[in-house]
Amino acid sequence: MNWQSTNNYPFPNTGEDLALRKSAYRFFIERMGFDKQAPYEPVNDLSKLLHGDRGYNAGRTPSDRGLSYYPWLDHAMYLRDTTRHYTVLLTQPYPYDKKLVTTKGLNMTDLTTLKMYAKEFSFYWPEVTEIHLITTKEAAKRYEIIITQIHEELFRAFCVEAVRQLDEA
After folding, report:
1. Any idea where the domains of the chain sit in the sequence?
2. Does the model's pTM come out above 0.90?
3. What pLDDT sits at residue 7?
4. Deepest of 64, 97, 122, 168, by most Cβ within 10 A of its Cβ?
């Protein structure tokens, strides 16, 4: 696995909204506590990887990177918090029908999926579709709290801006 710093923006997108996307990405990464990222790579034991254990790719030769059995994983990425030893698999199943999104075969022992909407991780910008964070149940408890705080903070900012615009009118 080729881990990179989260300081580098991982998406190839360009254009007038790039500064906004980079800012949103930084905000999300810093709030969630991630400091490493890696492009999706199939592993033999996803549960071991997300629990921070070694041997998650045992039995695979380095030249065999494997294939993505699920097309909704083609744009996925891993994010890691090395301080807390948490790793998540972040994916966006759009444009696939929700019933096609299955974790069968991913060896999801003691893992769970958090769902959220986030522009900063939209692989299909400007579409904002459901984001899936697959992680351990222990890490999910922490991330659920942070995601709720982020949504509350963004909602407060939206309300303040709406009131400001009404006052100007």
Report:
1. 4-168
2. no
3. 87
4. 122
